[in-house]
Amino acid sequence: MNPLLCDGELPAFDQIEPSHIEPAIKAILEQNQAEIDQYKLALTPEQAYQALHELERLAARLADVWSPVSHLNAVMNNDELRAAYNACLPLISAYETAQGQDTALKNLYEILQRNTEVLNLTVAEQKAIDNALRDFQLSGVDLDESTRERFGALKQSLSANTSRYAENVLDATDAWHMHLETSARLQGLPERAMALSRQNAKDAGIKGFRLDLSAPSYLAVMTYAEDRELRREIYEAFVTRASDQGPQAGQFDNTALMHKILTDRQLLAEMLGFERFSELSLAKKMAVSPEKVLEFLAELNERTRPVALEEMSAINIFARDSLGIETLQPWDLAFCAERLKQQKFALSDEDIRPYFPATKVLNGLFEIVRRLFDIDIEQTANVSVWHPDVTTYVIKRDNEVIAQFYLDLYARAKKRGGAWMADCRCRRRHPIHGLTLPVAFLTCNFSAPIDGQDALLSHDEVVTLFHEFGHGLHHMLTQVDCLSVSGINGVAWDAVELPSQFLENWCWASEALGLISGHYLTGEPLPKALLEKMLAVKNYQSGMKMVRQLEFALFDFRLHNEFDGSAAIVQEILDEVRTSTGVTPNIPVNRFQNGFNHIFGNEMGYAAGYYSYKWAEVLSADAFSKFEAEGLFNRQTGEQFLSTVLEQGGSRDAMELFKTFRGREPSVEALLKQEGIAV
Fold first, then answer.
1. Is residue 244 part of a domain?
2. Same structural domain for residues 80 and 166?
3. 475 burial class (0-12, 13-18, 19+ CB within 10 angstroms)?
C-alpha cells in the first residue's frame, strides 16, 4: 500500500519512497476532481453548506500528502525525490488553477454568502467564504477561455521556475567546499568551529579541515578567521552562489530564471486587471497600497539610517586604528564588528554559547510558553521521522493533546538553508469525521552536536528557535475549526510574522534567560556579569541590522512595483537601493539577488512582501510593550494574547485582532525604542 495514502495518520517517513509520490498525487487529484464535480452542483443553501465541509476535506486530503513530500524535498533532497516533486508541480498547479476558475464552484460560495443568516454561519466560516470569493477573482475566474489557458500556463511556469531557482541555490551551496590539511589558516576560529570543520572533513572521508557554505561554517569564518584572504575567498563564493560570477560562474546560474519569474508575475497581474505585481501581492495583505508600503519603509529608513551611518563609521575607525585595515571590505565587516564588540563590551558570542546547550534552551522555551499560555509540551517516541536528528513532541492543555510537532534543528548536506515552520496537518472539524489536530514542522540549521555532546547554541540561534516556535504556536494553538482560516491559513501575509517576532522578546528578558540558560558542563546559571553584558550589547549595531533588512525589503518591493520587462532592472534597482539605504561596503561581483530564496524560491511567498518582517516587527514590539507594562509572565495578558491572536488564526481581520489585544492601532515608536534607535 502506498504509505502516502494512509488517511488520517501521521506521515510514515521511514516508508516513503520517491516512486510513491507521483502515483499518490495523481490518485488524489483524480479522486478529488470527481467528488468536486458532484459537490459543486449544490443548489440549496443547505446543500452548499454541506459541500463546504466536503471541499475542505478534499483540500486537506491533498495537503496531507503534499506537505510531507514538500518538506522532504526541502530537508532530505536527492535526485530521485527532486524529480518526483517536480513532476507533481504542474499537476497540482493545473488542479488548483482549474478550481480557482470554476464558475460553478464560485456560484456555490456565492450561495453561502447570500445565506449567511439563514445558515447561521460562524465568523470563521463567513471569513472563509469571503476569502474564497476573493481568491476566485485572483485566480482568473472571470477571464475569457483563451486568457484562462494562458493564465494556467503562467502559473505552471512560475511553479516550475521558482522550484528550479531554489534547487540551484541548494546545489550551489552544497557544491562548494574548501579542504585544508592543517589549521594554519584557521587562526582565530573558536574550538567549536574547528571541531565542526574537522568533523566535516571526517564525514567526507578526508583528513584535516573542511569548510563549506552552510551557515555554521560560513558564519564562523566570516566572524572569527584572522586570515583576511580566507575570509575573502569564502565571502565571494557565498555572495556569487547560483550566478554568472565567482568560483562556480554559470554552473547554477539563476539570472535568466529571475527575469522569467518577474515577467510571468507581471503578466499574471496584468491579466487580473492590476497594473503592477505589487498590487496583486497586496490583495492578501494588511497594507492598502504600494504607496503605503513605500512610505512605511521610507519612514523607517529616514529614522534609522543616520544611526546606521554612525555605527558604520565607528567600525571603519576601529578597523583602521586597531586592526590596520585602511579600506574595509565586505569580508572584513563581521570580523571587525565582532572585534569592536569585544573591545566595547568585553563580550564575544563564544563566551555565551556554553550557557545555551540545546536541551536546556528547549526545556526553558517550553516552560516559558507554559507560563504564558497554560500549555505543556512532552517529547514523544515511536514516531516515524526522516533523519535521526529529528525529535517529536505533543502539546497538551489540561492533559489533553491539542497539537504535535517535529523539530529538525541541525544543518546537513541536502537540506535547504535557513529556518522555517511549515504545516504537516492543519486543524479542521468535519461533521462526520470529527476533529483533526494541527501538526507542525519546525526546521533550523544550527551547528550539530560534536563528539556526543549537547549542541551549544549561539544567542542568535536561540532567537531563531524562538522565532520559528512563535510561528508554530500560531499554527498549533488555533481554536478555529474551519480549515482555510485555521492557524496561519488566511492570515494576512504581513501579519504572519507577528507571533514569531513577538516570542523573540523573551530571549532578552532576564526573567526568561534564567530558564533557557545553564552551563553545559556544570548547569551553572548565566553569570550576572555575562547577563548584564548581553543586555548591554542587545542593540549593538541595531541601526545597521535594521537598514540591512530595509535594503532587502525595498529591493523586493520596488522590483515588483517597477518591473518593466528589462533584465537589467534587477541589478539597477538593487544598486539604487544600496545607495539610498545600505551603509556597508559592496563588491561588483556580489549577486545577492541570485540566492534570494524568500522572493524567488517559491511561487508567491514573500514576493512584494518581504517588508512584512518590518511591518510585523512594529506589531510585535507594540504587543510586547503591553507585557513589559503588565509583567512578562502575566497570565492574564498571556491569555489575552492567546485568545485574541494565536487562537483566532485567519478568522478575523489582522488589524482588528491587534486592536482588540492592544486597545489601539500599532505605533512605529515601539519598535524604534525597542531597537534603541529612538528614546
1. no
2. yes
3. buried
The 10s digit of each residue's pLDDT in 616-651 is 999 999 999 999 999 999 999 999 999 999 999 999
The answer to whether residues 111 and 7 belong to one domain is yes
With CA atoms as reference, report the closest residue to 570 among 358, 262, 316: 262
Alpha-helical runs (H) found in 283-378: 290-323, 330-345, 349-352, 358-373
Domain that residue 218 falls in: 176-239
Altogether, the residues listed in the chain come to a count of: 679
pLDDT at 604: 65
Q: Among 312, 308, 338, which residue's Cα sits nearest to residue 323?
A: 338
Q: Which three cell numbers stand for residue 353?
A: 554559547
Integer-rounded Cα radius of gyration of the chain: 25
- Phi/psi of residue 628, nearest 5 degrees: -60, -35
Q: Hey, how many other C-beta atoms are within 10 angstroms of the C-beta on 493?
A: 24
468 is catalytic: yes
406: cell is: 517535529
**What CATH number does the domain containing 155 carry?**
1.10.1370.40
One domain, residues 516 and 634: yes
Assess whether 316 and 368 both reside in one domain. Answer: no
Pick from 110, 90, 112: nearest CA to 102: 110
Q: Distance from first CA to last CA of the chain, Å, rounded?
A: 63
Do 190 and 140 reside in the same domain of the chain?
A: no
What is the pLDDT, as a whole number, of residue 181?
Answer: 96
Q: Give the separation between CA 573 and CA 589, rounded to whole angstroms.
A: 16
β-bridge mates for residue 436, sequence order? 428
- Residue where one domain finishes, among candidates 194, 209, 239: 239
228 and 288 in a common domain? no
State how beta strands 400-410 and 209-212 pair: unpaired
- Dihedral in degrees, nearest 10, Cα atoms 22, 24, 27, 29: -80
pLDDT above 80: residue 6: no
Quick one: average pLDDT of 467-471? 98
Q: Which set of grid coordinates corresponds to residue 164?
A: 528550479
Confidence category of residue 602, pLDDT binned at 50, 70, 90: confident
Question: Which residues lie below 8 Å from residue 300, measured CB to CB, with a gap of 6+?
Answer: 546, 550, 614, 668
Q: What does the alpha-carbon distance between residue 26 and residue 88 come to, in Å, rounded to a whole number?
A: 8
Q: Does 123 share its domain with 180?
A: no
- H or E, element range at 435: strand 434-436
The pLDDT score that the predictor gives to residue 678 is 82
Residue 318 corresponds to which amino acid? F
What are the pLDDT digits (tens) for 538-577? 999 999 999 999 999 999 999 999 999 999 999 999 999 9
User: Distance (Å, rounded) from C-alpha 326 to C-alpha 319?
Assistant: 7
Contact 499, 638 (CB under 8 A): no
- Looking up cell 563588491, which residue turns up? 587
C-alpha cell at position 78: 536527492
How many domains in the chain?
4
Strand, helix or coil for residue 581: coil
**The three three-digit cell numbers of residue 309, written as one number:** 551611518
What's the pLDDT band for 138 if we cut at 50, 70, 90?
very high
Active site residue: 468, 504, 603, 617, which one? Answer: 468
> In terms of Cα–Cα distance, which of 495, 472, 302 is closest to 394?
472
Q: Looking at the whole model, is its pTM more than 0.85?
A: yes
Residue 521 confidence (pLDDT) above 90: yes
Count the Cβ atoms, other than its own, within 10 Å of residue 292.
12
